[in-house]
Amino acid sequence: MLEAVIFDLDGVIINSEPLWTLAETRVFKTVGVELNPEMCSRTVGLDTMATIQYWHDRFPWDNKSFFVLYKELMAEIQRCIDESGKLMDGFLDLLQLLTDRQMVMAVASSSPMSLITFVLKKFHLFDFFRIVQSSETEEYGKPHPAVYIQAARKLNISPLRCLVFEDSFYGALAAKAARMKVVAVPGEEAVNDSRFDFADLKIASLTDFKPSHFDMLSRLT
Q1: Annotation says 8 is catalytic
Q2: Three-class DSSP labels, the chain
Q3: Are 6 and 107 in contact (CB under 8 A)?
Q4: Which residue in the list 8, 47, 167, 200 is annotated as catalytic?
């Protein structure tokens, strides 16, 4: 049976992917990299430093260090979230369902700990999660499973008894590599993407997740 549920942050708890696109477009422009939404979608699920490396490999710049760009990007995304961030549709209902089922809950995200903490406090969610784990403390970010393995270790729960909600391909791949059950929530535009076929369940939105889905996934453990 399932004992824990682990959430990604961006695109699962908070509808921040459009805000990341906005922040990345603004900040990378300062180093001469002109991004558009399609380009930004290529790095969804990667941690911030990996995203910076990704674009530097393709469009090298030398007027700012990675560290400076990272700080500017973090400041911009936090400002965007503070101004217009919203929880994902269906998240609060899902949180209530899992609370009723007495599930242990955690967050495991590619975002830095400072941003995860900011979001959870802004929306008064911090106390729902036993642990919060960022891939910034791991040697490798998603799609490597390290952040999920570490979250399970801190929870003292077998990865085999953990269920993960992920919106990105890299994130879902990381959770499956950690041997966890995976609910992929890639949105209406990507729910039929065959790349997510390895997930135990694919849904377009958290609003589509039902108690019967939870019962089915629990039987798989």
Answers
A1: yes
A2: CCCEEEECCECCCECCHHHHHHHHHHHHHCCCCCCCHHHHHCCCCCCHHHHHHHHHHHCCCCCCCHHHHHHHHHHHHHHHHHHHCCECCCHHHHHHHHHHCCCEEEEEECCCHHHHHHHHHHCCCHHHCCEEEEHHHCCCCCCCCHHHHHHHHHHCCCHHHEEEEECCHHHHHHHHHCCCEEEECCCCCCCCCHHHCCCCEECCCHHHCCHHHHHHHHHCC
A3: yes
A4: 8
pLDDT band for position 46 (50/70/90)?
confident
Which two three-digit tokens encode residue 105? Answer: 């809950």
Placement of tokens 């710049």 in the chain: 61
Residue whose pair of structure tokens reads 């380009």 in the numeric block: 39
Instruction: Please give the pLDDT value at position 79.
Output: 96
Q: Which of 10, 47, 167, 200 is catalytic?
A: 10
Report the alpha-carbon distance of residue 201 to residue 164 in Å, rounded.
10
221 pLDDT above the threshold of 80:
no
The C-alpha angle 198, 185, 121, rounded to 5 degrees, equals 130
What does the mean pLDDT of the chain come to? 95
What are the pLDDT digits (tens) for 135-162? 998 999 999 999 999 999 999 999 999 9
